[in-house]
Specification:
Distance between the termini: 38 Å
Structural class: alpha+beta
Number of helices: 5
Radius of gyration: 15 Å
Strand order of the largest sheet: 2-1-11-5-6
Largest sheet: 5 strands, mixed
Order of helices and strands: HEEHEEHHEEHEEEEE
Strand content: 35-45%
Length: 160
């Protein structure tokens, strides 16, 4: 499902891609067609946008959790508390950023169905790039269009 960084550099240049980095055993570069290899989930969302009111859309794509687990985060999956120290930072092509905790997407905790969308209202996002979709959010501020990077970080020093 994931590509190695070296293999991904040979991917076509006209296809939007994003990089998975950070505390991962298998960092990768992924395109929308790559994301089609994971099970696809659909959601109809309604979120509040401060500039244009309520927005309603249909999205499909794999769960962020599934894609990140394939990249092998550097924690012991058998130790639930070890996962809780991990953060996920997402950056879009417009510079917009959002931060999630691992616990939000983990099936043992929040189990939020966060998607890396490959379609928006039945339109493929191949060229525009994948979109972060958080159907549980009332506000659309953490929706990220044209994802450029997803960084998993478990090594921050929160208490120093």
């Amino acid at each position: 499902m994931s590509q190695s960084l070296a293999a991904a550099r040979t991917a076509p240049g006209d296809m939007a891609e994003f990089v998975l980095t950070g505390d991962l055993d298998r960092p990768a570069r992924l395109t929308v067609p790559d994301l089609l290899a994971w099970p696809q989930h659909g959601t109809e969302t309604a979120f509040e946008c401060t500039t244009s009111g309520i927005r309603r859309h249909r999205f499909t794509g794999p769960l962020l959790h599934d894609v990140l687990m394939d990249a092998a985060p550097a924690f012991d999956p058998a130790r639930r508390k070890d996962r809780l120290r991990f953060l996920i930072a997402v950056r879009g092509s417009d510079g917009h950023r959002a931060l999630l905790s691992w616990a939000e997407i983990d099936p043992d905790f929040g189990r939020a169905p966060v998607l890396l969308a490959v379609t928006l209202d039945d339109t493929p996002l191949d060229r525009a790039g994948s979109q972060l979709v958080l159907p549980q959010d009332r506000c659309g501020a953490r929706y990220i269009s044209g994802i450029e990077a997803v960084r998993v970080d478990g090594g921050y020093t929160a208490w120093s």
